[in-house]
């Protein structure tokens, strides 16, 4: 599950740059961590891998034939002369098409929508393995722009695959969803007071009402199960008997759902930053506090070693104290960042989100960006002019203005679409209050209310694991979004799977993005041979 920033990047909701690095990092971290997050704590529903008893019965295979057998009109990826991302895809040899799918799979003769896909065809046709479908997580992250980046990550095995990216229903270039929100993100903290929480309740309620008012006809059909159905239509339209898959963050949950719904239709499957189905719900972040505090502590030590550059403190404790001081000031009055015409007002409900996003990656470049942000916040808390680095300004713009409305709308709709959230607002407040003592920074964020508390209940029960799936999972021990504990749970539920662990890394999403040769080589070996390792393997940072 990646972030809002990720949604705009050319890399994915974990790491390489595909859209804009800032957009993707925010989107992925937020989405995944936030959506997935980038919430938690909802009771699991009974094991169920079929339609909910209250849902309409699934259509017969024949009713969907026209979708599975549709011809695809491959062509340019440019949607307009100004579409630079599309132009880059064209230059890389990528072709794009739209796949028509039913809005409601229980009524395939009714309204249709389109799912945008892209394809970088295999060049080693003599040894072609098949097609591999990509999902970058988010939820709400696009992947149409991803095939060239993944081709590079796949090294020698890349030319043997048709690499297929897709923007899930209502995301990116697919039939869009935009509720006209004044913000692009919904994962904020309750802040230090009841007044801050009450503002978050009012915001969440208004966002849900706005989506219901503008998009009531489609919201019930935005779910992981329907996206998995779309994936299978894509497989059929491509003419593939089976399809391979690479999913990051939320994409690992989507991949798992696909294995349960369509068990005979996948080949090689890589789940990077895997989340267990029981952990995917509107309160995804609830059990991620420990990993995020660990990642923040490691970042603080890094920043302390560079005090002469950032001025945040000469020890880990001093850097964390700087954050505490910023939070205390922001709780009394919003901080002013930037200079005209780009001025942002940031308070104690926003700052934990920004820090949460910043600790999703322990690479030096990401740590530098977070240090710049905290330095700007520190200056603002002292009443000084606080210029905002461009990437920080992009992040703030996505989070705090309507510029990110489409991303926030689709991400939230996906998060709310599988499992109902608790409706009692006081339950969230009690959880927040209980968390403050041990987790004063992240507790009021991970326990906070969101729009799902005011969303209509999902039409289907969530997919539960009812049979094994031989997949390759990839995970870092310090992943602050889809935690290593969650990956271990899924691994235990799928005994035929194998787990590739990267030790001592506080990073969400690894393959092709983190630069660890051991991880990349092991994944590529599996993609080349189709053989899982004989046992679980461990790599070292």
TrEMBL record:
Domain (Peptidase S33 tripeptidyl aminopeptidase-like C-terminal) ranges: 448-539
Keywords for this protein: Hydrolase, Signal
Secretion signal, residue range per the UniProt entry: 1-49
One GO MF term: hydrolase activity
Organism: Streptomyces griseus subsp. griseus (strain JCM 4626 / CBS 651.72 / NBRC 13350 / KCC S-0626 / ISP 5235)
Compositionally biased residues, Basic and acidic residues: 1-11
Record protein name field: Hydrolase
Skewed-composition ranges (Low complexity): 12-23
Segments crossing the lipid bilayer: none
């Amino acid at each position: 599950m990646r972030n809002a920033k990720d949604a705009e990047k050319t890399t994915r909701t974990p790491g390489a740059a595909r859209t804009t690095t800032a957009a993707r990092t925010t989107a992925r971290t937020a989405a995944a961590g936030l959506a997935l997050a980038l919430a938690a704590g909802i009771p699991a529903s009974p094991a169920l891998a079929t339609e909910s008893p209250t849902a309409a019965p699934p259509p017969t295979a024949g009713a969907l034939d026209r979708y599975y057998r549709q011809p695809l009109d491959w062509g340019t990826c440019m949607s307009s002369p100004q579409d630079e991302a599309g132009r880059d895809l064209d230059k890389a040899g990528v072709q794009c098409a739209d796949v028509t799918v039913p809005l409601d799979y229980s009524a395939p003769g009714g309204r249709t929508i389109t799912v945008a896909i892209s394809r970088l065809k295999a060049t080693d046709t003599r040894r072609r393995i098949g097609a591999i479908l990509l999902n970058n997580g988010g939820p709400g992250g696009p992947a149409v722009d991803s095939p060239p980046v993944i081709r590079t990550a796949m090294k020698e095995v890349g030319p043997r695959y048709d690499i297929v990216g897709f923007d899930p229903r209502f995301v990116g270039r697919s039939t869009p969803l935009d509720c006209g929100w004044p913000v692009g993100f919904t994962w904020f903290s309750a802040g230090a007071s009841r007044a801050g929480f009450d503002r978050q309740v009012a915001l969440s309620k208004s966002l849900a009402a706005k989506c219901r008012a503008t998009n009531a006809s489609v919201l019930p059909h935005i779910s992981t199960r329907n996206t998995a159905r779309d994936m299978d239509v894509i497989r059929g339209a491509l003419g593939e008997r089976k399809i391979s898959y690479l999913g990051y963050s939320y994409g690992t949950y989507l991949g798992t759902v696909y294995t349960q719904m369509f068990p005979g239709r996948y080949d090689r499957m890589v789940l990077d930053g895997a989340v267990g189905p029981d952990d995917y719900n509107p309160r995804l972040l609830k059990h991620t506090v420990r990993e995020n505090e660990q990642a923040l502590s490691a970042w603080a030590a890094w920043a302390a070693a560079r005090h002469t550059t950032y001025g945040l403190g000469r020890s880990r404790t001093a850097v964390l104290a700087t954050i505490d001081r910023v939070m205390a000031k922001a709780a009394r009055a919003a901080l002013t960042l930037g200079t005209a015409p780009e001025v942002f007002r940031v308070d104690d409900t926003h700052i934990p989100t920004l820090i949460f996003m910043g600790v999703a990656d322990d690479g030096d470049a990401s740590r530098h960006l977070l240090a710049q942000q905290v330095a700007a916040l520190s200056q603002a808390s002292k009443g000084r002019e606080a210029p905002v680095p461009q990437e920080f300004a992009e992040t703030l713009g996505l989070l705090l203005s309507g510029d990110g409305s489409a991303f926030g709308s689709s991400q939230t709709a996906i998060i709310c679409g599988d499992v109902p959230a608790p409706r009692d607002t006081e339950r969230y407040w009690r959880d927040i209050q209980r968390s403050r003592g041990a987790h004063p920074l992240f507790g009021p964020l991970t326990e906070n209310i969101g729009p799902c508390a005011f969303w209509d209940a999902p039409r289907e029960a969530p997919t539960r694991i009812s049979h094994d799936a031989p997949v390759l999972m990839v995970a870092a021990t310090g992943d602050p979004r889809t935690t290593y504990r969650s990956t271990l749970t899924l691994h235990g539920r799928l005994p035929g799977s194998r787990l590739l662990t990267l030790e001592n890394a506080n990073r969400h999403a690894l393959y092709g993005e983190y630069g660890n040769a051991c991880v990349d080589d092991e994944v590529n070996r599996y993609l080349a041979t189709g053989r899982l390792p004989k046992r679980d393997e461990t790599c070292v940072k």
